[in-house]
Amino acid sequence: MKLFSTTSRAPMTERRRFLSGGAGLALLAVAPPLWAQGRGMTAVSAVPPAPTLRLPDTDDKPVDLAQYRGKVVLVNFWATWCPPCRKEFPSLGRVRKLFKPAAFEVLAVNVGEDPDVVFSFTGNTEFPVLFDRAAKAMAAWSVMGLPTTFIIDRQGRLAFRATGGREFDDPEIVATIKQLLS
User: Fold this and answer.
1) How many other C-beta atoms lie within 10 A of the C-beta of residue 66?
2) Model pLDDT for residues 75-103, shown as the tens digit of each residue
3) Under a CB-based contact definition with an 8 Å cutoff, are residues 172 and 101 in contact?
4) Phi, psi at 168, each rounded to 5°
5) Measured distance CA(155)–CA(19) in Å, rounded
């Protein structure tokens, strides 16, 4: 069944009929809106070592995930053109402020964008913004969509993962971070 057409109104009528029918209404009732933020994070089975992450920051200085061993690290892959990324970005700063810098860090990995574009969006953040211009880190971390976030434990292992937008200062996520810090 063809639902969209630029030459005929009949397909749109079929679409309306489907959406007004029970199946269409049931689908709309249970499906969250595309802009909805998820909650919580999923534990990574077997807790494998985190892939290598060494990327330039806003000053073009290399930042290596290995230098954060002993801390819990939230690694967020994002882009300015991604609406859920833009929505969740302020919560990265809020969750960063909830924990001591000696114990917790946020690394925001921008994928494929020019530093000037990113800086105009981020301004001065209190956590490192890194640049994965060729999306090589994104591939190494098996990121299939943006935003995707990982929490790395103190031993440098992937502990939790989330695909899609989140509010990182949500009590459930804060509790997850506290669990890893204890």
Assistant:
1) 11
2) 999 999 999 999 999 999 999 999 999 99
3) no
4) -75, -15
5) 50
